[in-house]
Amino acid sequence: MRGFIPSLFAVSALASPVSLTSRAAKGIYFLLAGDSTTAPNGGWGDAFLSTTVASGSSGHNYGHGGATTASFRSGGDWAKVTNDIGTYKSTYDVYVTIQFGHNDQKANSGVTVEQFKANLLKFAQETTSAGGAPILLTPLTRRNFASSTSNVTENLVEQRSATIDVATNNNIKWIDLNLVSMNYVNTIKKDAASKYNLAANDWTHLNTWGGVVFSRIVSDLLVEKYGNIFTPATKANSTLSALIKAGKPA
Ligand SMILES: *[C@@H]1O[C@H](CO)[C@@H](O)[C@H](O)[C@H]1NC(C)=O
Ligand SMILES: *[C@@H]1O[C@H](CO)[C@@H](O)[C@H](O)[C@H]1NC(C)=O
Best mutation site among 188, 213, 237 for ligand 2, i.e. most ligand atoms within 8 A of its Cβ? Predict the structure, then answer.
C-alpha cells in the first residue's frame, strides 16, 4: 500500500511542474482511523483497502484494537494519520474515515458522550486543516442476537446518534454504518451472521470474509451517498453488493 516515494515525486514535480496540473483526476488515499472493528485482524479496514479500492487509489489502516477517541490521540495513532495526510495530499485526495464508539461507550473508558462528540469533531477539524477530508462513520453493529426479538441487541445507540449529530451540525460527510450493518444482520439472522465471527463466540470482530462483506457495505454507502467522489476510486463487486442489498447471506 505504500509504493509511492514522496521525495522522488517532489523532484520530478520540480523538474516539470506542468505534469502536476495536467494530471488526470487524483486517486484517493484512504486513511482509516478507528478501533478494533476497523483494525487489521478483526475489523473491516484491511478488506476495504484490498477489495474495494480501485487501482490508482490506496490507503492505510490505522485502526487500533481497544482504541477510544481519547486513546487514539494520546497513544500517537492520530499523529500518524495527520502526518500521512501531509505526506500523501500532493499526490492523492486524502480521505480519513473516523469510526469509534465500541470502547468509548464502556463504563470505564473515561470518555463521556459529550467528550466523544468533541473528540470526533476535533479529529474532523484537524483532518481538514492538515489538507484531508473527514468522513464520520457510525460504529459497526455488534452481532449479539437477543432471543426475545431474534434481532441484534442495539447497544451503540448513543454513539450512533452522537456521531450523526457531530456530522450534521458541522457539515461533515458521514455514513450510517451502524444502521445498515445492523439491518443486514437482522435480516440474514443469527446462523448466517455467525459466519462472520472472528472466533466462535466473538460477535463483535470479523473474520477475513466478514471483513470483505462489511467493508463492501462501507464502500457501497460511500458510493451511494457521495458517488461523484468515490465511484472513480472504487472497485465494484456487483454480486456481493446485490446480495447485501437483497438482505441475503453473503
Ligand atoms: C428486527 O430488525 C428488523 C430490521 O432491522 C426490523 O425491521 C424488525 O422490526 C425488527 N424486529 C423486532 C422484533 O424488533
Ligand atoms: C465478490 O463477491 C462474490 C460473491 O459474494 C465473492 O465470492 C467474491 O469473493 C467477491 N470478490 C471480491 C474481490 O471481494
Answer: 237
Q: Which residues have C-beta atoms less than 6 Å from ligand 1?
A: 149, 151, 182-183, 186
Report the nearest-CA residue for atom 5 of ligand 1.
183
> Which grid coordinates belong to 63?
485502526
Q: Which long-range contacts (CB under 8 A, 24 or more apart) does 80-85 make?
A: 81/31, 81/33, 81/127, 82/126, 82/127, 82/130, 84/29, 84/31, 84/60, 85/31, 85/127, 85/130, 85/131, 85/132
Of the bound ligands, which one is closest to the alpha carbon of residue 189?
Answer: 1
Pick the range with the lowest mean pLDDT from 16-20, 37-41, 84-88, 111-115. Answer: 16-20
Which atom from ligand 1 is nearest to the alpha carbon of 187?
A: 4
- Say what the pTM is: 0.91
Residue 183 CA: nearest ligand 1 atom is 5
pLDDT digits 0-9 by tens, 104-140: 999 999 999 999 999 999 999 999 999 999 999 999 9
Tell which one of 239, 241, 243 to mutate to probe ligand 2, the residue whose CB is within 8 A of the most ligand atoms. 239
Topology (CATH level 3) of domain 2-245? Rossmann fold (3.40.50)
- Pairwise CA distance, residues 238 & 241, whole Å: 5
Parse the chain into domains and list their residue ranges.
Answer: 2-245
Residues 40 and 63: their CA atoms lie apart, in Å, by 7
